[in-house]
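Below is how a single chain appears once it has passed through the pipeline. First comes the sequence as given, then the structure the pipeline wrote out for it. We keep one example in the README because the format questions we get most often are answered faster by looking than by reading.
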Amino acid sequence: MFSFTILDFKKKRSPRTTINWGMYTSLAGLWEDTIMDNIDEEYDRFVHHLRDSAKRAESLKTTKRRLSPEILELIRQRGAARA
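Resulting structure:
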């Protein structure tokens, strides 16, 4: 016959896990800073890409304005011939 007492269960229990909130807060702060830095970098890259794209589009418009309609037609024909 087996008999257990409450004292037997308490002895075998592992020590209670404690949370070091200061460490947790510090790590959470570092994580947040890292995430914000990554978002800022991605945003800066995106804005740079948009500016470059706008400059290229404007340059293309300027180039098209300078070319005569005959030249533009030849360019279109060459493109169609390649396809």
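The chain has three helices and no strands.

See the next section for the split statistics.
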